[in-house]
Amino acid sequence: MSLADLQKLPEGLAEAATIVDGLDLCLAMGMSRLSDLEREKLTAFGEVFAGSPLGEPVKVALEAIAESRFAPEHFLPLAIARASLQASQHDALRAQLAAALQLADSPAVEAPSLQVQDREAVARLSAAQHLLAELAISGFANAQPEQLAGFARHLEALQEHADSARAAALFTSFFHELLETLPVDGPEKAPRRRWGDLWSRGFITASYPAQPDSAQPRPAKGLFTPIGSDVRSSAFFCAAAIHGVFQPDDGGPAFWTWMAFQSYKVDLISGHENWALFRPAIDPLLQALADGGTFQINEGGVFPDGRLTAVEMTAAPATSFDPVALVEKAVGQLPPAPDVYTRHPVHLAQPVLLREIAVTKAGEGWMAKSADGVTLPLFAEANPDWSELGAIDLATLTQLVGFIRFDAGAWRLQPLCGRAKLPDPPAPPKKKVKPPKGGWGEGWVRTGMYALAALTASPSETLEVLSERASKLLRS
């Protein structure tokens, strides 16, 4: 393994980013008010696809925009072309990661079947397409909250139907983020890359909705050892993953996997209260993170993307094990590549074990140096500030299990767990905290290890109050 090979980015990656930035600037300015400079960037965007299958649709779309003919069907080819550039970035970075770390490849996830929509579903998604088209015409820098008001009822309709769950999750977060942020003071103040990502992904999702739950898991029985948690939340949605190592009963090789949880929420729910959204289903996993425990999956499955699902699982008897050796068995293979519709550099997350590491402060961030002297930025902000790793002095990290991710134009290390000075628990313990029952021993900080203790020390009164009010409304 040579992390040094990740310090120089693949050829063509920066050029592709420049082309994407050009389109994002046009989206921020508004297609109806482009200057000569923005028109040049739009032309350069189209030239990239000349001679490709996307060449003609992009050309037709740009000609329509130049003639001030604005319609959703003119913006969709731009969204697809933008996503294809980022998919090519993903593939180049994934190949670099495989070569640098000498990783075995995994089959890519098959593209989901596209859904046949009834009239009502088409109407719901059509409203989302028109909202995105209006934003492109006016520009993010010129959009006003009033433009979004009419979409609220369509968003509620998306949320109520399972066949539009993916679109509902995306548009819920994007819609409320726009409401909270707009108006912005000029295109330089708009988060152009982020909103460009959400705009293009939203257009594709609303135009080509995938059949939900079409992927089938392959049967799996074995031992699952939770390693840490990864939580991502906005004001109105939260997703959590419990990552770990799975050892099949049939003697097959151990591999990295995760169990996923997600829920809508309100902005009043924050910090450790997010865990309460997934109770009671997540409680056994959080207990295992606290105790260093493992689970026997008696009936379960692994989806094509590597995600684990358990129909029947029981806590396994506590045994001593070497956590470093266990993780080392599972990090020698690339996770399956996302399907062609969703590939993006943000989805690159390669589990990695660093047996020796030195972390130092560097300006507002942190730098991590491996045993062979290679330095990479630490992606510490990927963990919430209320998480266990958000509460420790990162300079005390001496070993690390985490992910290599691509963020802000560089490879970075996101800690998932590590050997470091333990943070204080959420409430002062009445007696000395005993070492975990499992094989982790002292000194290992695992994200999620204090989640149950935090919920016990400070129960989520917000969620209880909201649930009680919702119950009263339903009864009235």
Beta percentage is 15-25%
| SS elements, strand count | 12
Low-confidence segments: 428-435
Given the C-alpha coordinates, what overall shape results?
globular
Strand order of the largest sheet: 3-2-1-4-5
Number of helices: 13
**Structural class, from secondary structure content?**
alpha+beta
Give the C-alpha Rg: 24 Å
Termini distance?
Answer: 63 Å
Q: Tell me the number of structural domains.
A: 3
Q: Average pLDDT across residues?
A: 89
Q: How much helix is in the residues?
A: 25-40%
State the order of secondary-structure elements, H for helix, E for strand. HHHHHHHHEEEHHEEHEEEEEEEHH
Characterize the biggest β-sheet. Answer: 5 strands, antiparallel
Produce a short descriptive summary.
It contains 13 helices and 12 strands.
Structure report:
- This protein is α+β, with helices and mostly antiparallel strands and 476 residues long.
- Helix content is 37%, strand content 21%.
- It contains 13 helices and 12 strands.
- The strands form 3 sheets. It has a 5-stranded antiparallel beta sheet.
- α1 (13-29) packs antiparallel against α4 and α3 (55-66) crosses α4.
- It starts with 12 loop residues before the first helix and ends with a helix.
Keywords:
alpha+beta; OB fold (Dihydrolipoamide Acetyltransferase, E2P); 3 domains; 5-stranded antiparallel beta sheet
Q: What topology emerges from the helices and strands here?
A:
Elements: H1 13-29, H2 36-48, H3 55-66, H4 72-101, H5 119-138, H6 152-160, H7 165-181, H8 192-207, E1 218-233, E2 237-248, E3 255-264, H9 273-276, H10 283-291, E4 295-302, E5 308-315, H11 323-330, E6 349-354, E7 357-362, E8 365-370, E9 375-378, E10 399-407, E11 410-419, E12 444-446, H12 451-457, H13 461-475
Antiparallel strand pairs: 1-2, 1-4, 2-3, 4-5, 6-10, 7-8, 8-9, 10-11, 11-12
Helix pairs in contact: 1-2, 1-4, 1-5, 1-8, 2-3, 3-4, 4-8, 5-6, 5-8, 6-7, 7-8
